[in-house]
UniProtKB/TrEMBL annotation:
GO terms for molecular function: lyase activity; metal ion binding. The keyword Cytoplasm does not apply. The keyword Ribonucleoprotein does not apply. This is CbiX protein. It holds the Pfam family CbiX.
Length: 127
C-alpha cells in the first residue's frame, strides 16, 4: 500500500510562513522514505496549495493511505471543527483512500526543548 504523509498548516498572508513550511517538508523528505514514501502538504487557509489541492496531489502520486498531521499547537476551532469538515469532504471525494488523522502538535517535550534552545541562542547573542 502506498502511504503518504500530509502536513497540514494553518496558512498565512506572510510569504515567510510558506517558506518555513517548505523547509520543513524538505527536512521530512530527507528522513522519511521508509514509513512515508509519499509526502504532501497544504494549508487550511490563504496559502497554496490548499488542503484539497495538496490531497489531490498526493492521490495523483498514487497514495492509497494518507496520514494527515495538523501542524497546530492548540486544539482550537480548526482542530475541533474545520479540519474534520474538510476531511469529510476528501473522504467523500476519494472513498477508496484510507485517511488517518494524527494528533495536532500540542504540548510536547520536543517543543519545550526547542523553546529552551531558542532561549539559549538568544542569551548567546547578548554577550
Amino acid at each position: 500500500m502506498k502511504r503518504g504523509l500530509f502536513v497540514l498548516a494553518h496558512g498565512s498572508k506572510a510569504k515567510e510562513a510558506d517558506d518555513i513550511l517548505k523547509e520543513i517538508i524538505a527536512m521530512l523528505e530527507e528522513r522519511n522514505k521508509e514509513e512515508f514514501p509519499l509526502l504532501g502538504f497544504g494549508s487550511l487557509q490563504i496559502s497554496k496549495p490548499s488542503f484539497h489541492e495538496g490531497i489531490d496531489e498526493l492521490v495523483n502520486k498514487g497514495a492509497e493511505e494518507i496520514v494527515i498531521v495538523p501542524m497546530f499547537l492548540f486544539q482550537g476551532n480548526h482542530i475541533k471543527y474545520d479540519i474534520p469538515e474538510e476531511l469529510d469532504q476528501v473522504k467523500e471525494k476519494y472513498p477508496a483512500i484510507k485517511f488517518i488523522m494524527a494528533k495536532h502538535i500540542g504540548a510536547d517535550r520536543r517543543v519545550a526543548e526547542i523553546v529552551k534552545e531558542r532561549g539559549k541562542e538568544a542569551l548567546a547573542l547578548t554577550f
